[in-house]
UniProtKB/TrEMBL annotation:
Keywords, alphabetical: Cytoplasm, Queuosine biosynthesis, S-adenosyl-L-methionine, Transferase
Role description: Transfers and isomerizes the ribose moiety from AdoMet to the 7-aminomethyl group of 7-deazaguanine (preQ1-tRNA) to give epoxyqueuosine (oQ-tRNA).
Location, primary (coarse class): cytoplasm
SUPFAM superfamilies for this protein: QueA-like
Protein name in the entry: S-adenosylmethionine:tRNA ribosyltransferase-isomerase
Family (UniProt): Belongs to the QueA family.
Subcellular location(s) of the protein: Cytoplasm
Species of origin: Brevundimonas kwangchunensis
Assembly description: Monomer.
The organism's taxonomic lineage, starting at the top: Bacteria, Pseudomonadati, Pseudomonadota, Alphaproteobacteria, Caulobacterales
Pathway in which this enzyme or protein is active: tRNA modification; tRNA-queuosine biosynthesis
One Pfam family this sequence matches: Queuosine_synth
EC number(s) per entry: 2.4.99.17
Length: 369
């Protein structure tokens, strides 16, 4: 399909810069094949049945945006080494490749070369951390993606990243305001348990302990999977044809206990309700052609577009996504492109708030009502 098929006009004032308070007071657009309904998040239990299963992503967002300087020896005159050349850079961590290695998106990326030394925490307010978080560019790929080999490793590296880094707010928020201390809690779900994401599983931001209690009181079981969301989720689709787009991989895990429980839900006639596209993508990656969910541990780069045969997920709760994004392609595959275009047009006209801190939608497949 053409990427342009997934385009729509979104006014700038529809982009939410802060979440609703309380979280479950955000609006909820319920989208069925035969119509839609305007509700709020705390009404979610009204659309669930005893025996259904709610699946959420328990990843925790780390402060993955790092500022620093690139250092490179100046060859000087006549081959004599001169002063070290430094340029301010920014890295957004993407995927942990080893205890001391991260793939990251660098800005400015064009001038970065393999062998460059990067000293993070060496600019601005973090100058006191100079030398604490140094890395070498081990490799350079496409789209500004580089491989950083840090001087620290394991928990020691994690501790310094927490000290030096800032929360990686999406570009459409970061362009309008700076990250602050409030984002450290706002941009984290109540499910957050396992460090590793550089972007929040944003549908989960709507949940509160009271809402979870209300859901469980209806006879709905809750289950956790882990998908560490990478910075690739923010990259635009540059290809004209969706078939030419390359997804960046992300690490995820579905335990045997969770897989067995979800298979039992389906066998008993219950529905699997995913909180967010991250949970959906992971479950679909873990599901075979026979519809059985299997334990999963590793990377997935699944790219879901219209025509994809969903095997595991019956209902999807998700936020409103960017035009021409892989996530709008996914929801169009789930609920139908024309259905989603009409739903988004309604949401825009009716003042719904979009993106990470925005309102939510509940999407029902035609065979899952």
């Amino acid at each position: 399909m053409k990427t342009a098929d997934f385009d729509f006009d979104l006014p700038e004032d529809r982009i939410a810069l802060r979440p609703a308070e309380p979280r479950d007071s955000a609006r909820l657009l319920v989208v069925r094949p035969d119509g839609r309904e305007d509700r709020i998040i705390r009404d979610l239990p009204d659309f669930l049945r005893p025996g259904d299963a709610l699946v959420f992503n328990d990843t925790r967002v780390i402060p993955a945006r790092l500022s620093g300087v690139r250092e490179r020896p100046n060859p000087g005159v006549g081959g004599q080494e001169g002063e070290t050349l430094t340029v301010e850079v920014e890295a957004t961590l993407h995927h942990r490749d080893a205890p001391d290695v991260w793939s990251a998106f660098m800005k400015p990326g064009k001038r970065i070369k393999a062998g460059d030394r990067i000293r993070f925490g060496a600019v601005g307010d973090a100058a006191c951390d100079l030398g604490r978080l140094d890395a070498t560019v081990a490799d350079k790929g496409e789209d500004g993606l580089v491989v950083l080999k840090f001087d620290l490793s394991g928990p020691a590296l994690d501790d310094v990243i927490r000290d030096v880094g800032v929360m990686p707010l999406p570009p459409y928020i970061a362009a309008k305001r700076a990250e602050d201390d409030r984002d450290r809690s706002d941009y984290q779900t109540v499910f957050a348990e396992h460090d590793g994401s550089v972007a929040a599983p944003t549908a989960g931001l709507h949940f509160t302990p009271a809402l979870l209690e209300a859901i469980r009181a209806t006879g709905v079981s809750t289950h956790a999977v882990t998908l560490h969301v990478g910075a690739g989720t923010f990259l635009p689709v540059k290809a004209d044809d969706t078939a030419d787009h390359k997804m960046h991989s992300e690490w995820g895990e579905v335990s045997k206990e969770t897989a067995d429980a979800l298979n039992a839900v389906h066998a008993a006639g219950g529905r699997i309700v995913c909180v967010g596209t991250t949970s959906l993508r992971l479950l679909e990656s873990a599901t075979g052609e026979d519809g059985a969910i299997k334990p999963f541990h590793g990377d997935t780069a699944i790219f879901i577009t219209p025509g994809y045969p969903f095997r595991a997920v019956d209902i999807l709760m998700t936020n409103f996504h960017l035009p021409k994004s892989t996530l709008f392609m996914l929801v169009s595959a789930f609920a139908g492109l024309e259905t989603m275009k009409a739903a988004y047009a309604h949401a825009i006209a009716d003042g719904y708030r979009f993106y990470s801190y925005g309102d939510g939608s509940l999407l029902l497949r035609s065979d899952a009502q």
